[in-house]
Structure prediction request, 112 residues.
Amino acid sequence: MMYTNVIGYQIPNLSLPKAKKTNLNRYGRMRLDYLEQNEPNLCDQMMLEGTLLPSCRKMGLDAQQMVDKTLHDLMQKAQMPDRKTNPLGWAQMCNSLKQQAEEMILPMLYEE
Prediction:
């Protein structure tokens, strides 16, 4: 191991492994924010192991798939206003159903 001498102290030259750029979706960012604020030790450990961002990315993609599937199911069951004659009512209903679908998956993002 290489060391650097700083004011008489030997400090090890530590570096994180090179990781490829990871894009996080909304749910992946929410998971990362949760870990940073509420589980800093776990967050630091995962970062040092190089698993933090891939884990958040996978959880974000899984959450997005669950929201999409749940939203599709809710739209099939709900009586949707006609999109052509009542576009604002249709958009309101879509937004309401999307919020319901997101509320169902949010607890998953905040588990350890």
